């Protein structure tokens, strides 16, 4: 990745932009089209371009997916409400994926790309320990 | 000094012989008497000028020397007394000066000792203050560490207790509340 040229980075950025739909979400059909294009017209360093493209697509996918960590049970209603709230907040379509994490003790931790929203017993105990 | 007495005695002898007629009585002859008188006068003059006068002058000179010696001795005694008085005065002044120097030395030593004592006291107080400050910092650090350790233990214990004791229903209620909090925020 470090040996990737500036033109290849710009190419991966352009390919990523071509892979998004009107709402900014990753469109699988467009991704397939981009890959076919790269197969027919390989760049100078195809492996580096593909790695950069993959990383950018992963970031875009993470932006559209809210990972909801929880301890105990969580209903689909809650996941739906979270997806709706964050879609409204980020103004793009966001799906919610549940992930069991008993270390939280109780509560929810929502991770969207690099953003983390947390309301858990474990987090409150950590805050209490740091304050003391 | 003896000359007037001898001459007076000789004159009195001649006069007495003339008055009582001793010349005839003892068979004295006048020219012999005169001759003896002249011889005695010559002898007296010789003795006077050659013996009595030099001896008298010598005695006078010796007497003058003795008197001068006595006078010199008295003067020397006076000078000696003055010198002794001057010496005593100088010694007294020296003693006074020495006493003054000793007093000044004592005052200086006392001032130096007081200054040293004061500096030592200040240094000791600084050391004590630093030690107290260090002890206080150490105490605070120890309390903070103990507080942190206690907090960590309390939190860990609470975490373990909650993890074991919370029921699924309680977790579900807490998740609902957390979802509402996150969606509202």
Textual characterization of the structure:
The complex is a heterodimer of chains A (132) and B (185). Chain A has helices spanning 6-18, 28-40, 46-63, 76-90, 121-131, and strands at residues 65-71, 95-100, 107-112, 115-120. Chain A is an alpha+beta fold. Chain A has a 4-stranded mixed β-sheet with strand order 2-1-3-4. The radius of gyration of chain A is 19 Å and the shape is elongated. Chain B starts with a helix and ends with a helix. In chain B, 3% of the residues are buried. The mean pLDDT of chain B is 87. Chain B has one domain (2-122, 124-184). Chain B is mainly α and 185 residues long.
Strand order of the largest sheet of chain A: 2-1-3-4
What is the arithmetic mean of pLDDT of chain A?
A: 87
Task: Report how far the terminal alpha carbons of chain B are from each other.
Answer: 162 Å
Q: How would you name the oligomeric state of the polypeptide chains in this document?
A: heterodimer
Major β-sheet profile of chain A: 4 strands, mixed
Major beta-sheet overview of chain B: none
Calculate the terminal CA-CA distance of chain A, rounded to whole Å. Answer: 44 Å
Low-confidence region ranges of chain A = none
Q: Quote the beta fraction of chain B.
A: under 5%
- The fraction of residues assigned to DSSP E strands of chain A is 15-25%
- Taken from the alpha-carbon principal axes, the silhouette of chain A is elongated
Q: How many domain units of chain A?
A: 2
| Global outline of chain B | rod-shaped
The pair of chains with the biggest contact is: A-B, 27 and 25 residues
């Amino acid at each position: 990745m470090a040996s990737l040229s500036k033109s290849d980075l710009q190419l991966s950025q352009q390919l990523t932009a071509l892979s998004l739909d009107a709402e900014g979400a990753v469109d699988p059909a467009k991704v397939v089209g981009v890959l076919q294009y790269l197969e027919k017209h390989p760049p100078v360093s195809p492996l580096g371009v593909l790695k950069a493209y993959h990383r950018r697509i992963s970031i875009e996918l993470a932006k559209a997916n809210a990972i909801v960590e929880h301890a105990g049970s969580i209903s689909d209603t809650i996941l739906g409400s979270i997806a709706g709230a964050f879609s409204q907040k980020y103004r793009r379509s966001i799906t919610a994926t549940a992930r069991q994490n008993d270390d939280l003790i109780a509560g929810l931790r929502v991770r969207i790309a690099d953003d983390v929203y947390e309301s858990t017993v474990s987090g409150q105990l950590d805050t209490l320990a740091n304050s003391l | 000094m003896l000359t007037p007495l001898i001459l007076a005695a000789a004159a009195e002898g001649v006069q007495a012989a003339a008055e009582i007629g001793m010349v005839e009585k003892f068979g004295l002859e006048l020219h012999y008497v005169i001759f003896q008188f002249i011889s005695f006068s010559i002898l007296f003059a010789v003795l006077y000028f050659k013996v009595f006068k030099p001896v008298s002058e010598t005695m006078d000179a010796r007497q003058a020397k003795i008197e001068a010696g006595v006078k010199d001795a008295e003067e020397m005694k006076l000078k000696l007394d003055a010198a002794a008085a001057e010496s005593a005065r100088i010694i007294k002044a020296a003693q006074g000066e020495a006493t003054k120097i000793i007093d000044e030395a004592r005052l200086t030593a006392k001032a130096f000792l007081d200054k040293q004592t004061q500096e030592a006291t200040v240094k000791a107080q600084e050391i004590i203050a630093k030690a107290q400050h260090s002890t206080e910092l150490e105490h605070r650090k120890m309390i903070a560490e103990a507080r942190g350790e206690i907090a960590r233990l309390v939190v860990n214990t609470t975490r373990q207790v909650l993890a074991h004791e919370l029921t699924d229903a309680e977790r579900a209620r807490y998740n609902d509340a957390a979802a509402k909090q996150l969606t509202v925020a």
